[in-house]
Structure formats: C-alpha cells, structure tokens
Amino acid sequence: MNKDSAIKLIYKMGIIAPIALTIFTVLFFTLLLKPSHISYKKAINKKNDATEMARQEGYEIEVIDNTYGIITSYLGKDGNVTIPGEINGFEVVKIDDNAFEGNNYIEKVTIPETIKTVGERAFCKCSNLKQIELKEGISEIGPYAFEYTNIERVDFPSTIAMIGDDAFEDNSNLKSVSFRDGKDPLSIGNRAFYGTSLEQVDFPATVASIGSFAFGGNNNLKNISFMESDIPLSIGVSAFEYYQGNEMRIPGNVTDIKTSICQNLEIIRIERCKIDGVTQNLNINVPLKEVHGTDTLTEIKGYIGETVFYGPSGSEMERFAKANGYEFIVEE
Q1: What parts of the chain have a pLDDT lower than 50?
Q2: What would the 3-class secondary structure string for 21-83 be?
Q3: Exposed (0-12), middle (13-18) or buried (19+): which is 124, by Cβ within 10 Å?
Q4: Strands of 290-292's sheet, edge to edge?
Q5: CB 3.0 to 4.6 Å from 180: which of 2, 58, 158, 234, for a disulfide?
C-alpha cells in the first residue's frame, strides 16, 4: 500500500467510525428498551381485556398494580350469581363498598375462596337475596354488608375473622348461623345480627369479642353456647338483649360481662378464668335469682335485684354480697 492509499483509508475510517458508533448506540438502546415497552403494552392490553371481559359478565372491575382485581359494581340481572375468582388472569380479592347495593334481582350469591373482603354495604338492600355461600378464604365482612336482605342461613368458614357493625342487621328471616374454629380470633361487631330471628348461636373457641347489641332486637334467641378457649373474650352491653333463656353459662375466658334486658334470665354461671393474669368483671342491669362465680370474678356492679350469690369463701363475690346486703352461699 502506497502513501496516498494509506492516507485515503485513514480518512475514510475517520468518517465511518463515528457513523458506525452512532448506529451501534441506536440499535443497542432500541433493543434494550424494546422488551420493557412491549411488557408495558402487554400489561395495559391485559388490564383492558380484563375490564372488557368483566363488563360482558355484568361487572365493573378495578385492577390494582397489575396484580389483582376488585369488583366495584354489578349491573347484571341474574338471580343466581357466582362471583368470579379471577378475570383474565387477575385474581379477584375483594367485593368493593356498595358494589351490589340495591340490586333486587339477586336471590343467591356464591363468594369464592379468592375473595378476602366483602366491603361496606356491598349487598345492602338486596331485598330478594335469600342465600349466600361463603367459601374458605374470606376473612372480613364489612359494616352493613348484608343489611336489609332476606338471607335465611349463614355458614361462616374457618377463615372469617371480622364481622363488621350492622353486617346482617334487620334480616328478620335469618334463623340459622354456624361458625367453624379457625386460626385467627373472631370479632363480631356492634349490632352485627340485630333484628334477626336466630334461635340458637354456638360460638367457636376463636371468638374474641362480641359487640354491643350484637344479637339484640331478637325475641327468638333461646340458646347460647361457648366452647372452652384460652382467648380472652369481651361481651358488650346488651349483646344478647331479649335473650329468652332463663339460664346462661359464661365460659372462663370471658373477661368483661355486661348484661341487660334479658327478660327471662334468672341464673348466670360464670366459670373460673384459667388465663394467667386475667380477671373477670360483671355488670348486671337485670334482676337475677342466682349468680354463680369463682375467685377470678373480681368486680361486680349494676342493678341486681333480689339475687343470691354463690362462690368461694373469702372471694370478691362474698365481700360484695355482704357489703350490699345480698345473701351469699359458699360454693367451692
């Protein structure tokens, strides 16, 4: 190669190299960014497809973080509704607040195991709703969720942990509920079952709180039972208002006992608390014939009437009875 040829080659390289570098850079970043752009576009399409598929079934759905879905409303007219567990690959985990409120077509609804929460007023005022099927998985039923419906029976799965205030209020046709023991403590809100027609309630060992008037407004309630448990249980004011039984057994895990307006109640039997460091207190606003307790009952107050107290010698019950002029009989 002569001198002139070498100079021409160097000159050409000086022009071609920057151009090649520019082309390489453009190609590199195009290939680098293209997959993420495609992924984003696919995610948008998947979300839009889910929305369209849901609408075809009568639902409005909100997809959260491109990972799961929430039923926000139902516009269908089916009498028998099965909530979908997934729509286009998005797991449906919640029925949102007011989603079915006022729908008078629904007569039965099946809620799948993917649903964790039924929102506030979700089925409120569904006046023809008579049957609900709750699968294992649901953990929370929000306030007023099934208020003013005509449900006749509810079988709660073991996963239920929260039944909100007024959740089943004013279901006059509700005559039966059942609970299964679960892993998490169960909280039953204020007035949760107010105004139902329940005749018997058998609580699971996991129940931890029963709110005020939770089972009030019901003249049909005749039987209440509790299982032995080491979970402290609080019972709110008039939780069993209008209870028709004449005797009530309070398990040893109950720490706070408030009772009133139980018109036929004559005898309360409070079992000994077996939970370390926990004591019991009793607030009565109904005349009773007998109160049976143990040395773990440390506080008694309220209007009691002509009551005879039974308990251990030297107990708070004995002190209270004698200080207030009530008859006390030793019962170890």
Answers
A1: 6-7, 9-11, 40
A2: HHHHHHHHHHHHHHHHHHHHHHHHHHHHHHHHHHHHCCEEEEEECCCEEEEEEECCCCCEEEC
A3: buried
A4: 247-250, 267-270, 290-292, 308-311, 327-330
A5: 158
